[in-house]
Amino acid sequence: MLKKLLFLLLFFSASAFSYDLPKDPLASVQWDDMYAAFLKEHPAVFDEKVIVHAPVFAEDPMNVPITVDASQLGEVKEIIIFADFNPIPLIAKYYPVKAKPTLSFRFKIQQASPVRAAVLTDDGVWHVGGMWVNSAGGGCTVASTGRLVGDWADYLGEVYGKEWVNEDANRVRFLIHHPMDTGLVPGIPAFYIEELEFETEAGEELASIKLYEPINENPVLTFDFTPDNKKSTILMSGADNNGNEFEARFKP
Amino acid sequence: MMLRVINALLISLCLPLATLAAEFDYQLNPVKVVKDTYIFEGKTEDFTFGNGGNIVNTGFIVTSNGVVVIDTGPSLRYGEQMRKAISNVTKKPILRVYLTHHHPDHFLGNQAFKGIPIYALGETITSINNEGAGFTDNLYLMVGDWMRGTDSIAPTKTVEPGVVNLGGHKIEILGFSGHTVGDLAIFDHTTGALFSGDLIFHKRTLTTPHANISLWLETIAALKKKPFKVLIPGHGPKSLDKQAMDDVSDYLRWIDVTFKKASEDGLSMTELMAQPIPKQFSGNALLKEEFSRSVTHLYAKYEQAVFKRAN
Ligand SMILES: [Zn+2]
To answer: Which domains can be identified in chain B, with CATH numbers?
Structure first.
């Protein structure tokens, strides 16, 4: 019996990692599990060209700012952002089409953790960068302020934002009113925006993003789109896990 | 709360108490700054186990009737050691305590002054009632067993701004806001000592978790009119002139202008954190760290002022 179990274990671990996993420069015991959970379809390399900017200490664990910048890699297919030690590690999956491989937002952190971006390039390799963010803790298990005040429903889905026509890209920054409940606070089920899509008014697809529970309450996101026409009005559409739909338009 | 229980358990299980007690010594040394007036000067550092939370200036005035204490420090141990150090200067009783504001490094020594009236602005008392327990838990995390036994104790008396005569000292209580919603400063007309609390940081970058920049600037303009001889800031060395006040105003104005421009240019928080900081401010400890924290505290408001309804 024991032998059989051992064999099974060996078999599964061998098949789960058909690539040699590189040694984690952030020395996290969770790295192997993170790879198995989110990246296992492709081999991974640690790559300094994937830059994660965040403060080394989370002053407000409910609102940790982060910028991911993979522009040194050129064209990319997907960017996955996760925090190894968060109770829900997955934070976002970004799919730039006509957009720079950069984005910024805020997220909730539960305890000190590596925060990483894995960037999939055309050759089918994950390029992984990241850093440790320290925290006094508690970002994921505190009720949102909208819940505490009780007025979140009055503003649900309202979008405020702006488009900037910069030299290299059209930057869009916006805030969506949404409680982004993690489901980890007793009595409050998970309630969060799942997906947002961006296109120009002419129907040119720019990018899409999947968001997960750790994104902060009333998310503020920043993207750099590269539409053919720099004067494009950019449309956003999306939905949360309860079926509420959101739309917005950003004029340069 | 849970944390404190665990802390206590760990200590009673693993360590001989006698050796620990000797080590948790803040070495408080009263320094006379002007007639009858003494301060305990803290380090211009962040909270660490190494400094036990002694990063703050507290002080006392010895009047003919007794002692007036200004702020009680970050922990019960600090408050107790403060009382001991005061008793080495004077055997007079402590008449009253004034708290400058509700930040934990300024009031968590309250327990050591049990039975003595503790005065604070109404806003400060409300904030301590709301946030005091959370602050205390946070400090346990940051400085560990220096905090042993410390609980958040609310002030016992609400003070109205105005002048009081205490043992031959004409003491003016000033009620402001800007660093927090309730910032008390004390001006002793008899000696010229001005205790500013955290309205002034000197050679240490100011902190903004509850700040309102425009109110803070108005407050400093009002403080500058007081004919003080010595200014005791909440953090950092005493000052004999108005330079420390101007430095705080300059930094606040720079933050305001920089955050406004960043929001108009469409910068994210992390991009703003990476902005260069003028050399002018490089003499202040913890500049980069506090600037970054201030972005977290204050930038969201600036962003929202630029955003327009998009649906
Ligand atoms: Zn303060």
So the answer is: 25-241 (3.60.15.10)
Q: How far is the CA of B137 from the centre of ligand 1 (A)?
A: 17
Q: What is the β-pairing status of strands A44-46 and A113-121?
A: unpaired
Cα angle B28-B32-B36, degrees, rounded to a multiple of 5: 115
B290 to each of A167, B128, B221, how far by Cα in Å? 32, 23, 23
The answer to whether A144 and A161 are in contact (CB under 8 A) is: no
Shortest CA gap B307–chain A (Å): 4
Number of structural domains found in chain A: 1
**Which pLDDT tens digit goes with each residue over A82-106?**
999 999 999 999 999 999 999 999 9
Residues A174-197: pLDDT tens digits?
Answer: 999 999 999 999 989 999 999 999
Nearest to B268 among A57, A65, A159 (CB): A65
A53 contact residues in B (CB cutoff 8 A): 270-271, 273-274
Residue range(s) defining the domain that contains residue A65: 29-250
Over residues B124-162, the pLDDT tens digits come to 999 999 999 988 988 888 889 999 999 999 999 999 999
Q: Which of A172, A222, A234, A247 to mutate to test the interface with B (most CBs of B within 10 A)?
A: A222
Judging contacts by C-beta atoms under 8 Å, the chain B residues touching residue A166 are 266
By C-alpha distance, the chain B residue nearest A218 is B300
Flag whether A8 is in a domain: no
CATH number at residue A164: 2.60.40.2470
**In A, which residues are within 8 Å of B142 by CB distance?**
136
Predicted TM-score (pTM) of this structure:
0.90
